């Protein structure tokens, strides 16, 4: 294969002179994508088709990022691509646009319909065709007496820093705008297929893909571990760099440097770097406040590494030292938080685990003395809310994490090896602008769990010691705009 790729790149030297980049991911071998497609074949009707639409060209000068679902099935990173899975033949056809030589000279080589043999070698996909042949191939399938069903995702595609909850909100906002009201891209695609080929019954492929994505392979876990490692390094450096007078956005810049310096392809989500009262806003992301002495800072940020995410959070005092009241509340919260981490294990439902933890939290609450009634009320509310969540049979430990920060899937059953999620309970005292929320990434294993983010300090003494060190922001001063 290497000799074929080398020869192909030599032949392209006139189109993309000097380019030396991989044309297909090295994170997964073609065999792993083939295994995923095989599981889709096992899940759809025997003679059905499955059809997925890839992401469109990006708007503006931004790098292309494939939809998660499309990448999961084949790993192809080309705009306006499609893949058709034939359930009867157990084969796949990827449809790619024709070569645009002018764009290649400007932006570099992309796989195209003209690269059929190379695409087959790189990806392991059996067939390659141009996108303008997709309709013809569906028409041929429509003439068959056996094929009557096409599966396609009804849920929105997950692009850059996108989870399904926000994708659905995006669609809802457009639908509610009286001067917009566009049909969603996935909705438009479903309508076009149905209008042009009404003989087919269309079924939703999303639940099948969601179920497959729930259990991660070892290669997927390695990418999630790296994303968690980088997120944790950013939090650690954030502790060092935090000081009164620093802007929230400066910590955002510092974290992004760590992400991109170490190979991340983007951010998993916008940074939630919230000081003082901003921490009470769940997804505050403006980053426009000057951090002040006496504030607590909530820092929630992680990268996108090879289409896999993490989600980690810590809180710390801006001045580097927990005040007596901050220490009091944080210590109570931390004891409860550790009880949650300790109880997580495979073979048990989240509901059962939460019931155990609720009882443990009651013991911690009973042993804790609070300096203010306000703090005691907040602690009791925190424990009560956690115990109440255990009453719901569909409760989860937190949220799934994988190709999306808030990853897809629904499984209220016993926790299984390969499941990945975060926990992030929140203790809030609104009257004093306090929101204590830690978040760690957990992988369920055969024998227990792996808390991937446990290297990030959470003990009071560890945090205070680390904050005495100079950080990146102290070593590299911001530009004041003044001439030297």
Task: Provide keyphrases for this structure.
484 residues, alpha+beta, Creatine Amidinohydrolase, Chain A, domain 1, Creatine Amidinohydrolase, 2 domains, 6-stranded mixed beta sheet, 16 helices, 18 strands
Walk me through what this model shows.
It is built from 16 helices and 18 strands. The longest helix is centred in the middle third of the chain and has 24 residues, at 218-241. The strands form 5 sheets. A 6-stranded mixed beta sheet has the order 4-3-2-1-5-6, sandwiched between helices. It has a 4-stranded antiparallel beta sheet with strand order 13-14-17-18, with no helix packed on it. With 484 residues, the chain is α+β, with helices and mostly antiparallel strands. The protein has helices spanning 2-11, 30-43, 68-74, 101-107, 116-123, 134-142, 164-176, 185-196, 206-214, 218-241, 248-261, 324-343, 350-367, 373-389, 460-466, 472-475, and strands spanning 49-53, 82-86, 91-96, 127-130, 149-152, 201-204, 266-267, 272-275, 296-300, 303-305, 308-309, 313-317, 399-400, 420-423, 426-429, 434-437, 440-444, 449-451.
- N→C terminal distance: 56 Å
Output the CATH class name of the largest domain.
Answer: Alpha Beta
Q: Briefly note the structural class of the backbone.
A: alpha+beta
CATH architecture heading of the largest domain: Alpha-Beta Complex
Q: What is the number of helical segments per DSSP (H or I, 4+ residues)?
A: 16
Number of strands: 18
Strand content: 5-15%
Whole-number average pLDDT?
Answer: 95
Q: Might you state the CATH topology name of the largest domain?
A: Creatine Amidinohydrolase
Give me the side-by-side strand order of the main sheet.
Answer: 4-3-2-1-5-6
């Amino acid at each position: 294969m290497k000799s074929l790729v080398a020869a192909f790149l030599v032949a392209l030297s006139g189109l993309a002179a000097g380019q030396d980049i991989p044309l297909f991911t090295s994170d997964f071998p073609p065999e792993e994508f083939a295994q995923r497609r095989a599981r889709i074949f096992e899940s759809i009707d025997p003679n059905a088709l499955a059809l997925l639409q890839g992401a469109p060209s990006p708007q503006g000068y931004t790098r292309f990022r494939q939809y998660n679902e499309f990448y999961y099935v084949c790993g192809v990173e080309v705009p306006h691509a499609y893949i058709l899975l034939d359930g009867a033949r157990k084969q796949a056809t990827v449809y790619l646009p024709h070569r645009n030589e002018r764009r290649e000279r400007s932006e570099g080589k992309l796989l195209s319909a003209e690269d059929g043999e190379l695409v087959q070698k790189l990806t392991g996909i059996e067939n390659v065709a141009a996108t303008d042949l997709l309709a013809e191939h569906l028409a041929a399938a429509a003439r068959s007496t056996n094929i009557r069903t096409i599966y396609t995702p009804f849920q929105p595609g997950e692009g850059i820093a996108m989870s399904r909850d926000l994708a659905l909100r995006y669609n809802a906002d457009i639908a509610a705008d009286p001067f917009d009201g566009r049909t969603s891209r996935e909705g438009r695609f479903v309508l076009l297929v149905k209008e042009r080929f009404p003989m087919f019954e269309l079924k939703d492929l999303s639940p099948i893909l969601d179920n497959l994505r729930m259990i991660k392979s070892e290669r997927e876990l390695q990418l999630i571990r790296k994303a968690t490692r980088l997120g944790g390094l950013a939090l650690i450096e954030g502790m060092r760099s935090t000081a009164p007078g620093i802007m929230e956005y400066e910590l955002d810049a510092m974290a992004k440097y760590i992400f991109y310096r170490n190979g991340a392809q983007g951010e998993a989500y916008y940074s939630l770097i919230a000081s003082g009262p901003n921490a009470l806003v769940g997804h505050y992301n403006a980053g426009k406040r000057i951090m002040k002495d006496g504030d607590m800072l909530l820092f929630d940020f992680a990268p996108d590494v090879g289409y896999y995410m993490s989600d980690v959070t810590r809180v710390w005092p801006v001045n580097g030292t927990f005040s007596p009241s901050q220490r009091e509340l944080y210590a109570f919260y931390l004891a409860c938080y550790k009880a949650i981490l300790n109880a997580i294990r495979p073979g048990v439902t989240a509901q059962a685990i939460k019931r155990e933890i609720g009882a443990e939290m009651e013991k911690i609450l009973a042993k804790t003395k609070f300096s203010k009634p306000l703090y005691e009320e907040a602690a009791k509310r925190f424990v009560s809310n956690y115990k109440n969540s255990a009453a719901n049979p569909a409760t989860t430990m937190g949220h799934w994490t994988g190709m999306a920060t808030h990853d897809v899937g629904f499984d209220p059953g016993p926790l299984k090896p390969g499941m990945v999620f975060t926990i992030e309970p929140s203790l809030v005292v609104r009257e004093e602008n306090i929101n204590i929320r830690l978040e760690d990434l957990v992988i369920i294993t055969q024998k227990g769990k792996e808390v991937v983010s446990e290297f990030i300090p959470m003990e009071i003494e560890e945090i205070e010691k680390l904050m005495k060190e100079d950080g990146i922001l102290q070593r590299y001063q911001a530009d004041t705009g003044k001439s030297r």
